[in-house]
Amino acid sequence: MKVLMTVPNVAEGRDPDAIEAIVSAVRATEGVKLIDVSSDATHNRTVMTYLGSPDAVLEASRRMSLVALDRIDMRGHRGAHPRVGAVDAVPFVPVKDMEMAEAVEVAHNFGRFLGEQGVPVWYYGAAAINPNRPRSTGKLTQSMLGEYENLAKMVLDQTWPPDEGPHSFDPRKGACTVAARPHLICFNVNLGSTDVTIAKRIARVVRASSGGYADVQAMGLELKDRGLVQVSMMTTRDVDTPLPRLLETVRFEAARHGVSVVGTEFSGPIPLRALEEVVRHYLQLHDFSVNAIIENALI
Q1: Alpha carbon distance 247, 264 (integer Å)
Q2: Domains, the chain, with CATH or none
Q3: Is 183 a catalytic residue?
Q4: Is the whole-model pTM more than 0.70?
Q5: pLDDT tens-digit profile of 55-103?
């Protein structure tokens, strides 16, 4: 049986009624299993993770997007996370018995649907259709677009026009980035400081584009309501760059500035293999395997 997963990000993390309405559209879709919902008021963002057959996941994503477009007004949106629209980023991830090309087909079907709703769509990852564009993550694509505030100009820019939808800007809806990609781990490290320049310096150390770890994106964010700053990281290659290596690098660099790590977060679910390396590193169980977990044997 083919299994497809998607991890939609919508630009609402503060209104519980709106979030529940959006999530309920997914729950109501037959053949889809919702496995995680993560809302963050500082980022003003909700990340859902659900999986099922390709057709069911596509249908759930259509229903979810219609509710999100109805309930979210981007004209008043503020948050720490980069964003371009109400339905902000929708990546599709092949999980079982699927090729990436099949996930690309679903991504393009969803992108066309969203374009028909009056939303400009840019494809990224394996779904990118313009060979001159970087096959980046959604966060990087949003930054390249200049975020929501720059969209009125970008929809008319002939060097990077939308792949789907109108070449015009609806300030209420904004735009969307849609992808097919491998599973992405979103790992955030919070620092006991209010100086966002420290987080940004550390992000430059770990991210690939500035000479850090391969296939790691990172940025420094200010979490004003929590009195913290954050190094927000994403990677698809947790085997090559395991989470303990990322954490200890951030910890080492933070100590150089007299700052400590006060907590970490995942945004969305992670594969079991990533935790396998955490156990090996911190418990020094060098031969540990997830096959030793009783519950895993029962699945």
Answers
A1: 9
A2: 3-180 (3.30.990.10), 185-298 (3.30.70.670)
A3: no
A4: yes
A5: 999 999 999 999 999 999 999 999 988 899 999 999 999 999 999 999 9
